[in-house]
Amino acid sequence: MSWAYLNNAFHKKEEVRISPYDRGFLFGDGVYEVIPSYAGKPFLYEEHISRLSKSLNEVSINKPEQWEHLKSIIEDLLKKNNFFNQIIYIQVTRGQEGIRSHTPDKLTSPTLFVESSELVTDLLLTSYKPPYINVGIEEDPRWSRCDIKAITLLGNVMTLDNMSDSGLEEVIFYKDGIITEGAKANIFLIFGEKIVTPPVSKNILSGITRNYFINLLSQNNFNIEEREVSINEIEEADEIWFTSSGKVLQMVQRINNKTLLEKDFKNTIGHKAIELFRQDVLV
Q1: pTM attached to this predicted model
Q2: How many C-beta neighbours within 10 Å does residue 74 have?
Q3: For the chain, what is the radius of gyration of the CA atoms?
């Protein structure tokens, strides 16, 4: 039996109900956050909650009345669902209103939904499989405020759905010839010994895991640069990674059926980054 939290109470997942008059359902009027939990401990919790708060402020949604108790709600949920590693999903919409109107009522109470499910990952095993993925390249079709973690993800969904028949698991988005990010993750490119990632902008989400790896690698004397990356530079990259809360770090093996990574995994900078993450989490 799995549990979720809606507004003021825990419910069995199959019994969770929300009104179709909720603005999240009608307009996609809401924001969300995803937090991994390892051995019952949410990872980078404060950073994730800070970003959720920023998203709420950006779209002028009030914090739900349960905000000050959110950490204890999550802790209780993790215990109730009782998986060793879990992925936590938090969604806050502007709330339910009596009529469908583009202009929201300032007094509407937000809807808070929290759920968790088992996080299956090989990265924490003694012997883990190289996290390789195959990706495509597409012009970025999304709205111009990707810095807000909004629940309106139709552009991401359409792109991944169109690619799924080709066995592709991610996409490298670009806008005006400049790489932005993936549909589900931030991107890093390695040129020799230099690790490069696009700078945060309105076209890119400031990924918590992205920022974590920037700090972790910098502390360990890796050469990291945040700069704009031309889509043409893909051909010159020695490695390409995607980082996200759910998958941590995945390395690109093929781009549109062209092999990128041919060297042994243990000789890559990506492998070194994963080892640093493992040392940090398994302590």
Answers
A1: 0.95
A2: 21
A3: 20
Neighbour count for residue 249 (Cβ, 10 Å):
19
Q: Is the pLDDT of residue 257 over 90?
A: no
Which residues contact residue 175 at a Cβ distance below 8 angstroms, ignoring those fewer than 6 apart? 139, 140, 203
170-227 pLDDT tens trace: 999 999 999 999 999 999 999 999 999 999 999 999 999 999 999 999 999 999 999 9
Q: Do 96 and 188 reside in the same domain of the chain? A: no
Residue 192: CATH number of its domain? 3.20.10.10
Contact (Cβ atoms closer than 8 angstroms) between residue 187 and residue 228 = no
Tell me the torsion sign for CA atoms 251, 31, 54, 59.
positive
CATH number for the domain that contains residue 18: 3.30.470.10
**In Å, how far from its chain's centre is CA 19?**
27
pLDDT digits (tens, 9 = 90+) for 99-152: 999 999 999 999 999 999 999 998 888 788 888 999 999 999 999 999 999 999
| CB-neighbour burial class of residue 187 (10 A; exposed 0-12, middle 13-18, buried 19+) | buried
Q: Which two tokens stand for residue 244?
A: 């996200």
Q: Which amino acid is at 272?
A: K
Number of domains comprising the chain? 2
Residues 113 and 227 in one domain: no
Instruction: Give the whole-angstrom CA distance, residue 55 versus residue 52.
Output: 5
Whole-angstrom distance, CA of residue 191 vs CA of residue 19: 50
Bridge partners of residue 111, in order along the sequence: 93
Q: Work out the number of other CB atoms within 10 angstroms of the CB of residue 260.
A: 18
| Identity of the amino acid at 268 | T
Q: What is the pLDDT of residues 233-250, one digit of tens each?
A: 999 999 999 999 999 999
